[in-house]
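Tutorial sheet, problem 5. The two components below are modelled jointly, 690 residues in total.
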Amino acid sequence: MPAIRHASKRKPPPAGFSDIEDDLLIFSNKMKDAENAPSTNVPRHQVHWPIFQISHQRSRYVYELYYEKEAISKQLYDYLLKNGYADAMLIAKWKKTGYEKLCCLRCVQTKETNFNSTCVCRVPKAQLKEDQAVECVSCGCRGCASSD
Amino acid sequence: MLKSTHKPIGGSQQLAEGWTEHKAPTGHLYYYNAATKQSTYTRPAAPVDAPTPIAPIGPSQSFLQYQSVGPGFPQGEDRGSRGGFQGNRGGRPGNDRPRPQPTDRPKSRHLIPGFEPWVLVHTKLGRRFVFHTEKQQSYWRIPDKLKDGILQLDQQRIKEKTEALQKTNEPVSTGEAPGAAERPEVHNPDGDDSSEYEEVEVTDDEDDENPTKRQKTFEIPDEPIEYNEDDIAFQLATMGEEYGLDPGEYDDGNMENWEEGAAGLELTEEDAVALFRDLLNDAAINPFSPWEKLVEEGKLVDDTRYTALTSMKARKETWDEWSREKMKAMRYMRAKEEKKDPRIPYLSFLQQNANPKLYWPEFRRKFKKEAVMRDTSMTDKDREKYYREHIKRLALPSSTLKTDLLALLKDQPLSKLNRSSNMDSLPPAVLGDIRFISMDPSTRDGYVEAFITTLNPAPEIVEAEDSEEIIRMKKEKERRQKALNDREAFVREEKRKQQRDLQHGKGVLRYQELELERAMQVNKKGLKGQLVGEGADVMDTG
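Model answer (structure tokens):
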């Protein structure tokens, strides 16, 4: 059983956390709402889409703050990763060429698909048929190829 | 955009009450629901009917929505009766609208040359659709393959019309196909007189109806191609003039047809960016927030400066740049302002709010929303410690508290606390001490002020640390001064030398001039002498 860490015993977060605290709170509230939303009239495969999407947005938020806008410190970034505010594995993919907009890790997991291929959302728009609307099964992504 | 906050079930009944009436800049009434952020021109129905308000269907959307009218298009059999069925098939809620909706119906139809089973049907409201007589199907969106035929038809009609204008007012249309085509939902009260169908269709019995009642729909510029580009451009221009709009404001996808400079004649790109940045500055936005949040909140959309930039991409780019700069500025400001001891605000908060009747957990729960209680630079543990200590000290006799306070004040070095310091500029070491807050402020301040008057004035050696710096600065200054003096001396020397050279040159010149003058002074005697001399010479030689 993991140790229960009481708020009073916790180390304070690094400087700069207070700037992004409110937005992270909004994200976590959204996530809670998505988790508690009734899934009775939602198709089975779509139940987890909002979860994936919010997780993606939050990771993207942290990623952009650190790597693109350079607005937060390394300490704060590490703290955020450690405390689950962003998905480190997903961010690791975003740093690779061709994966800059990857929606979720499941969509590049070739071993989980029947033909050992990636998800349809990874296909560039140029290679799809015209007016072919794509919503991937795992996270509802509408296309996350880098060239789109 | 993802809207995760799920709405309560059965909320549509409450939504009906949320509608408010507003007046558009064009003078039309419209209805807005603050809860759903929807607006519509059609008056929302009574709450009994649980109206799901009709979304504000954009003109371009409406065609997608009613792509096919359905196979039940009665044709031929009830040719004479112009009624058809007019009831709304859709079973939409909100039938009891106060304003009667004008119904649309087919007015005339033409065979499309070259595509025989297809018929082009014009409706009373000036729209048109194609109808396949064999398959009994009709489409608002005209299939691509028919475009050629329709273009041909249009040209033919225009030709006929001009001929008719020249000769007489002969009816042009070939026949009538009254039937029932259900009128699509788009009811845009923005009547538009430039709709060109109206003047083209001159049929005898339709003209009997008073033409003022005709409801014409807003023309949709990205309808399937029906007229040539000039027509569209002209129509857009006239509409733009009528409404006083820029083409950018009713984005129609026909950007190439906009008149030159129609979209923001006086607004350059930099101006637009600057305007948007002004908006961002004025709206008091946290630069750390994600862009999506900003879009979702919709705070900016109401401002007209939001439209200065026409594309969402440009807006996002501007936002990125702005937030980057803002964050940098914030970081710089923070680095500049001195580190504040988090204990000082907390202790002053304790002094105001701590109460021996409250245990720490109660106190914490009571004030957990306060900024000082949430400040992350101080741990909860420390807060608890100070709270308990403060409460404990409140029970002590005031004499002890006073001696403690005086001891605290005495401990301060003279450089920090001296006669020139006052209550507002006490050193942080005093303010952040638990002994300072134990007494009631009114009595404590008197003690502190009395103590300060007994102190010596501030020592002179306060600037010991920066004296070195000052010496360095002084040296530097002296060096600079010396360098300047040297340079001046050198310049002076140079000048003198130059002067001397000049004088010398002038002297030489004057001497030469004198010599010349002397040479030029030829008197008779001199000449004679000279001549004599010469003659003598000549004689000598001769």
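Marking note: DSSP finds 18 helices and seven strands in chain B. Full credit if you identified this.
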